[in-house]
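To whoever picks this up:

The parser on our side crashed when reading a file containing two proteins. I've narrowed it down to the boundary between the first structure block and the second sequence. Both blocks are reproduced below exactly, byte for byte. First block:
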Amino acid sequence: MVPAVPVSVVIVDHHPVVRAGLSTWCAAAEGPIEVVAEGPDVSVALYGPGRAADVVVLELLPRDGRPTCAELHELVAQQRRIVGYTMRGGPEPALARMDLGSTAVITRAAEQWHLVTAIRAAAAGVRYTPPRQASGRRCPPDRPLLSARELEVLVSWFRSESKGVVAKSLGISERTVNTYLDRVRIKYANAGRPASTKAKLMARAVQDGLISLDEL
């Protein structure tokens, strides 16, 4: 049944062509899905018309050398309903972001129908995973659940030469960086999968779909 009440959407993606394509998909949906705002960064969802949108369609995988975990965390803190979208990679890294607050994750393998369905599900507060992604998910059952900030610090460390660089880029102290990394190590140890070195932590993150080799 086509919903009678319109669903408003804000699209966040760094590439204008992708934004235009997603807007076209929404406009062609059988049922009112209105794109009220779109832009290259999450500010478009936090201010202006996008602030009141029912659903945020958010590009998930890192761009410009920075992870989007903090952006996702900020939206989750506001109890926004989010559909994650990625044009890159397989489902594993993107699906991991669902644990951080996305109600759905759509990859490039998904069709238009799945995006529309995901948006409507998010508006109703229901999670949705396209069948192809659900069947391909192979995350270990003992994967520890990391907070948005823990994952942001972890990924930034993987991509940086030192913890000092991480601290400067995230605006925190090096001691705080160490605290977050210690928490991550403790969680892995408690899960029976200790990772005492940076290389071992990186291997765990790749195994669990928290980051892909391409992102490194």
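<<boundary where parser fails>>
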Amino acid sequence: MMDTIFALSSGSAPAGIGVIRISGPGAADALQRLAGKLPPPRRAVARYLKDSDGGVLDHALVLFLPGPHNATGEDTAELHLHGGRAVIAAVEGVLAGMDGLRRAEPGEFTRRAFINGRLDLAESEGLADLLEAETELQRRSAMALLGGGLSRVVEEWRGQVLTLSAQIEAVLDFSDEEDSADLPPSFAEGLGALQSVIGEWLARPRARALKEGFRVVLAGPPNSGKSTLFNALVEDEAAITAPTAGTTRDVLQRTCAIAGIPFTFLDTAGLHEVSTDPIELIGIERARAALGKADLVLWLGDEGQGPPDAWEIETKIDLGNRNRTSSPEMRISAATGEGMDELRRRLIAHAAAALPNPGQVALSDRQHTLLAEALASLSEISPAGDLLLIGESLRSARSAFDRLIGRSATEDMLNTLFSRFCIGK
């Protein structure tokens, strides 16, 4: 039998309300000992909470949510307290003193929801993404995953694989009969359709850019205006700017949202070949490494000297002695703001095209790897091949689907996922 756990599930005190959740076989008894008697199921009732000596702890709203039809799948109680630190600490202290109760570990409530079948693994990942979401795009993608947008599709694919496996079994069962050892045409059609749709999902934009932000690296020689532009884009004096060349010695990174699109901007050390300063050389090496990981490079240097597909940006157009570029992507002055609105507009459009559509499920690295594994197994199949080998490939594909939604999962993988959650969730 599982322990009964409790934790503060609302934000840190002080707050208007503090919500303590209790989940497990002892939830009803704990609530009765605090509130005197159980309220009607799923109805919020005002009660005085008292300690073992009858001292009043708080006047609170209490709920009893019997399992299995609730968030965790087991009996759950909620205490909606006044959100002061002393109130919360007093109630937690009484709960901690009850036999059979203990404080919850991070993500333990959600882990119990997974164990009790209230959420599958993909939906649990969606909940973790939702709690971490900072932009509207991230929120909508997380809601799609939490709402079963991927799980339903994977279950459908799993059913199709089972249908294909049944066709293999049928042919094997009757293979000793004349003219009955060939797979029906529907097998190749079903296999091809399944391969095609999984390939389409694998070609979608990934969740990494959505979570970490579209990576824009500002690069160019020393004193080309990178740091001034960086500050203008993140709307903060994050980088030190000065007329002296080589002011930036390291990669400076800031994440922000522009029009709801998550960006990560990186200011880099000036790129040139004549430095003998060992610290500056380290900065230049890190700048080159950042270029290799960029989704987009804004090149502020000489025309044609930037990386392939970089946007060539002519800066400092407010100065008369600037280096002119014959056909730059943009001409701007980060100091005066000229051209900056247009640059932001184009960055938003470019990043939006590379990110998942609003409300579309974006695959994590784990999900992408397992779908790729399933597709690889299906791609090994030749309808004219050995039936036993075809059956094994179908089994491998089904196994990848099972691991994706959590029908089979290792303890280490579960620990990694649920450690992303805060205590109380």
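After patching the parser it read the second block fine. The two ends are 21 Å apart (CA to CA). The chain has three domains: 4-115, 124-204+362-406, 213-354.
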